Structures are given as structure tokens and as C-alpha cells.
Amino acid sequence: MRFSGRAAALTLATGLLLSPGLAKAGGTVEVLHWWTSGGEAKSIGVLKQEFEAAGGKWIDSPVAGGGGDAAMTALRARVVAGNPPSAVQLKGPNIQEWAEQGALTDVDAVAKAENWDAVLPPVIAKIMKYDGKYVAVPFNIHRINWIWVNPAVLAKVGASVPTTWDEFNATAEKLKAAGIIPLAHGGQPWQDLTIFETVVLGIGGADFYRKALVDLDENALKSDTMIKVFDEMRKIRGYVDPNFSGRDWNLATAMVMNGQAAFQIMGDWAKGEFLAANKVPGKDFLCVPAPGNGFILNTDSFAMFKVSGADKIEGQQELAHLIMTPDFQATFNLTKGSIPARIDVPLDKFDDCGKKSAADLKAAIAANTLLPSVAHEMAVPRAIRGEFLDVVTNHFNSDMSSQDAVTQLAAAIERAKQQ
Ligand code: GAL
User: Fold this and answer.
1) Given the DSSP bridges, would you call strands 370-372 and 295-298 parallel, antiparallel or unpaired?
2) The pTM is what?
3) 2-141+298-356 has which fold?
4) Which residues of the chain, if any, have pLDDT below 50?
């Protein structure tokens, strides 16, 4: 234990009366997460190291699969079996859903002792709390709506970075004509939805995004704007290579890295992959906000599940404390590609992509264009997200018309809302 506030929090939470002389940090945590790619594993590795250095025992339970769908299936099985892990990578409304089922415990004593309310943006603090108490701990702020660019590949066709979707399409056509894959993509539903929501913002704007994807307004879902979004998705389908199906996102990032493709549309964990391969931002690769005004937010967090035994509870408290230390938030996010969730962490060590993300985030908060990601579970309940996944993926992988896609989407969302 590092300081008295934390010691008091632990004592409160575990009901143990530890005298300062006897106090020791540690405990045991089992952590279920999906951070298995190069950049991701490096980042979570820092937390494991710090936890162990503090005297704790770390049991790692990774479930591979970007976006976390496989991890969520594994989690459900563990909870049903009555044997949940202590900390789980969980996000947005999903945190509330598990809390409502009574599966989560809180780390509010640590949060109070360390005054988390004062150092987290209110929008993030709100997501982490259930019934006014912190049941989850945030790591970061990832931005979804980025295009990752290989500038050397663009130079081959004399193109510059696209600033509108029309420019994106024109450049993609040029690349295709030159025999270059315009867009590196992995055909997995969550990756399709990641592109889709970026296009919704780009074509519809922030208000439309909110109406259609967050408020689930039927008219917005059925609108001509949504038809235009699916038209763009159809074009994008023409810009991926024939082997895109099932490809992991980090392999798509590698295609941009090694010059096989020009672009990837992906959240900034892609930057973590470039950095893990020692690529230099601004030189070997560019981070360019995708056309559209706004910031699609994805915050990673660990939710704490109800476990029993002082050792495990102590582990959760220690983990919560460590994740929120300013030093850890800096180190983790420098390799993860995101920026810290804490607003008081200096960004001077961050590269221009990180600084741009922070500046755009601030501007988006001021302009009310900060939007939660649907693909990354920040916006709507899992069942609704599932409907988006199905329709967007079915459209992408067939010759379904934009009109049919819109009709199916609106109907599916209406059905899911009734349940
Ligand atoms: C997201 C997660 C990111 C990143 C990505 C790919 O859902 O928030 O941290 O890891 O999946 O696995």
C-alpha cells in the first residue's frame, strides 16, 4: 500500500484491520481480456508487471478476438458456472447490464480515497458507475474514426490524404487501377461495424449519428442519409482484397505497414501495432481523422466482478488503484495508441496522433460532437448492437441493395427495442 488514503480504502473494503506496519500490497486477480495483438499484449503486460511488482499474483485469462465478442461469450460461461474472473474488460452499457444482474462489486472506497471524480471526464466517470459507485475502472480514450495511411503507397499514385468520402473513393479507384489494394480490412462483423459507424458520422454528421445510432430513431434509420451510408459501404466493399474474410484487424494493419495496402479504417489501437513494429508516425504511417466532424469514443475499462475471499478483494482494490495512477495511464496509453482517461496526465511524451486526438476530443466536447461507438459497445445494449452487426455484415457480404439494408435495419432495431 502506497499511501494512507489507499490503506484506508482497503481496510474499509475488505473489512480487515491492517495496521500500517503489517500492511502489504498484493492480492490475487484473475483478469479476462482480449488484448492479445502485439501492441495490446505489450500494453496489458505493463499492468501485469506493476501488479506483480506490488506483490500481487496475476492470473491471465486472455480470449483472443478483436472487439471482444469471443471474450464476452467466455465471460457468460464463467458467470453461469458461478466462477467469474475478478476483473473483466467490459465497456459502456455492458457494464450497466452486468451490474443490474448483480454480478459486479464496487471499488468506490479506492475511488473516493483517490478522488477519481476530480480527474475523470464526467462522461467517462458516468459509464464507470452503477448506483453512484465505481464498478469499473477506465484506462483510456480510444478514437474510432481514423484512417491509417501508408504515405509511400499514396505517393505511388500521386494522391494526397483524402478529406472527403468522394476524395477517398477517387483515390481508392486510382490505387485499384494501379494494382494496389486500397483498403486493408478484416471481414469480421465488428470490423465492418467499425467502418460503418465512421461512415455514418462522415456522411450524416454528428446529429444524425446520435439520432440513428444512439437514439435509434426509426425515421433516421430509414432515411435517405442512411441509404447514402450503405451506398458508401458498397463502394468500400469494392476496395478490399479478395482475402478479407475473417482476417484479424492487426493483420490488416500489417498490410498497411508493409505497403500492400494504402489505408485502414480502424480505431487507434492500430497505432499500437505500428509502434510495436517500430514504425514512426508522420513518416512511416499517418493518422488521419476520417472525413466527418466529430469524435467517436471508445473507452476501455475493467469491471470488477463479485468474488469472495480477502485475497481476491485485495487484488481488485490494488488493480483499481494501479490502473488509475497517472504514471500507469501514461505508460499504458503510450503503447496502446490511445490517450489517458485521466485529464491530468501530461501529454508531452505523446506523439502527434495522440496530441491530435486530445485536441479533437476537447473540440468535440465543446461542439457536442462527441459520440459513443456502437461497434465497441459504448452506445447501445448488446442485443441492439447485435442487430447492427448482422445487417451491416450481411449487406457487406452480399449484393443486398442499400434500400433493403435500411428497411431490414429499421425493422430489426424496432423488434429489438420491443424486447
Ligand atoms: C476494442 C478495444 C480496444 C482494442 C480493439 C481490438 O474493442 O476497446 O482496446 O483492443 O478492440 O481488439
Assistant:
1) parallel
2) 0.94
3) D-Maltodextrin-Binding Protein; domain 2 (3.40.190)
4) 1-8, 10-23
